[in-house]
Amino acid sequence: MPFLLGQARLPANLAGDVQTMAGKLIETLRAKSKGGSVEGLIHEFSLSSQEGVALMCIAEALLRIPDRTTR
Q1: pLDDT tens-place string over residues 49-64
Q2: What residues have CB less than 8 Å from 53, skipping those under 6 apart?
Q3: Entry pTM
Q4: For residues 29, 32, 37 and 40, what is the CA-based torsion angle, rounded to 10 degrees?
């Protein structure tokens, strides 16, 4: 696993550019958004659909995964 983590890191000369681009993308998406991300998902995937139920199950499962401070 440590080998894979090392492979996932960006070279220092690219990290700043990637962070800048990601920030611009986020700002653009937030400006276009008419509602929050949760509202967007609810409108896209109704809770009466299989996809909506699956998304809610995944969200609940993610909430149950402890982080470092709660282990």
Answers
A1: 888 888 888 888 888 8
A2: 47
A3: 0.40
A4: -130
3-state secondary structure the chain: CHHHHHHHCCCHHHHHHHHHHHHHHHHHHHHHCCCCHHHHHHHHCCCCCHHHHHHHHHHHHHHHCCCHHHC
User: What amino acid occupies position 52?
Assistant: G
What is the spatial distance between Cα 52 and Cα 71, in angstroms, rounded to a whole number? Answer: 30
For residue 5, which amino acid is it?
L
Distances (CA, A) of 23 to 7, 33, 35: 23, 15, 19
Residue 35: what pLDDT? 60
For 45, other C-beta atoms within 10 Å of its C-beta total 16
Give residue-wise pLDDT tens across range 9-20. 888 888 889 999
